[in-house]
Write a structure and sequence with these properties.
This protein is an alpha+beta fold. The protein is 45% helix and 23% strand. The protein folds into 4 domains: 1-45; 53-61 and 264-361, Efflux pump adaptor protein, beta barrel domain (Elongation Factor Tu (Ef-tu), domain 3); 63-94 and 231-262, RNA polymerase II/Efflux pump adaptor protein, barrel-sandwich hybrid domain (OB fold (Dihydrolipoamide Acetyltransferase, E2P)); 98-226, Helix Hairpins (Orthogonal Bundle). The protein has a 6-stranded antiparallel barrel. Strands 2-9-7-4 form a 4-stranded antiparallel β-sheet, with no helix packed on it.
Length: 364
């Protein structure tokens, strides 16, 4: 039976449709092959040379401002968010007590100096006393020798009647008195020498400024002066005031936290990369970063300067206890510190805690 014209037309249309589908499949396969090749090229020449994370945040080495001396707060001169320069006055404590302490220490120093001056003046006087005691001893020794000679001269005549008993007794008494005077002169000389030695030990060998009593008193004056200066609390670095907790009238003690100063101009980024991403990351590699604050239109350039000593889980308040029977492995993240370009940071300032996106070039 011969095909009708309609049947032949349908057959031709079916063959044409099959040919078009085949061409479409071939085109799709080509597109897939090109896409796969492109993905392979991207992975080989770009993706494998970079590691990225959006788990990154701005950080800075903030300076804690604490009281270094005690006293009531007289005035607080800054508020949170205020920019300050190094040396700016942040807090003024009442300095009445510290001034009194300084005056008392200075008065004690003056008293010690007067005492040392007196000892120095006494040194020559005590030297004169020694010379006088030595002269007394010489006279007493001569008198003892004379009295002893008189006694020795008369004592053999005692039994002959050449001298009376009364005269011998008188000579003997004079000898005893001379010996006592000699002993007293010796004791006086020893006492004078002892007083001179004791006085000399306090002042000899060092000038007034190096005398131990003077240096101890001077130390107390210096400490009182330092405590007075510490009643003015100044900014230790340039930055922005944060976490201010001090109020006027508050009584503070050494170590009381007052506020923090955050050096936003020295901010850096802590990027928390997965441990499987860090195989090629090295100190010194370059990085590009963007912030959620400014978006992709502002790109920061940085450099890897170090790695944290442990993961965030290891340093958490309650670290993970993995030695348990129901342990489940979780990929850990390690903070990588990235320094930012100071010029770019000055043009587009960042604040601590802001979210960042980090891309490290690990090709070198």
């Amino acid at each position: 039976m011969n095909d009708t014209p309609d049947t032949a037309a349908n057959t031709v249309a079916a063959i044409d449709a099959m040919r078009k589908r085949k061409q479409l499949f071939i085109a799709l396969a080509g597109v897939a092959a090109v896409a796969g090749a492109g993905a392979g090229v991207y992975q080989t020449f770009f993706a494998s040379q970079h590691v990225e994370t959006d788990n990154a945040y701005v950080n800075a080495e903030e300076a804690q401002v604490t009281a270094l001396t005690s006293g009531p707060v007289a005035q607080v001169r800054v508020i949170d968010t205020q920019a300050v320069k190094k040396g700016d006055v942040l807090v003024q404590l009442d300095d009445t007590d510290r001034k009194l302490d300084l005056e008392q220490a200075e008065s004690a120093l003056d008293q010690v100096k007067r005492k040392i001056h007196s000892l120095q003046a006494n040194d020559s006087s005590l030297g004169g006393q020694i010379a006088a005691r030595q002269a007394d001893l010489v006279r007493a020794e001569a008198e003892l020798a004379r009295a002893n000679t008189e006694y020795q001269r008369r004592q053999p005549l005692a039994g002959t009647g050449a001298i009376s008993g009364e005269e011998l007794t008188s000579v003997k008494t004079q000898l005893a008195a001379a010996k006592a005077a000699f002993d007293q002169a010796q004791a006086n000389l020893h006492a004078a020498q002892g007083a001179h030695d004791a006085n000399d030990a306090l002042i000899s060998g060092v000038p007034l400024e190096k005398n131990p009593e003077v240096t101890a008193a001077q130390f107390r004056v210096d400490q009182a002066r330092v405590n007075l200066e510490r009643t003015v609390v100044r900014a230790p670095i340039d930055g922005v005031v944060a976490k201010r907790s001090v109020q006027a009238g508050q009584m503070v003690q050494p170590g009381t936290p007052l506020m923090a100063v955050v050096p936003v101009q020295q901010a850096y980024v802590d990027a928390n990369f997965k441990e499987v991403q860090l195989g090629k990351v090295r100190v010194g590699q370059t990085a590009t970063l963007t912030s959620d604050l400014y978006g992709d239109k502002v790109v920061y350039h940085g450099r890897v300067i170090g790695f944290s000593g442990g993961t965030g889980a290891a340093f958490s308040v309650v670290p993970a206890q993995n030695a348990t029977g129901n342990w489940i492995k979780v990929v850990q993240r390690l903070p990588v510190r990235i320094a930012l370009d100071p010029a770019e940071l000055a043009n587009h300032p960042l604040k601590v805690g802001l979210s960042m996106n980090a891309d490290i070039d690990v090709s070198r």
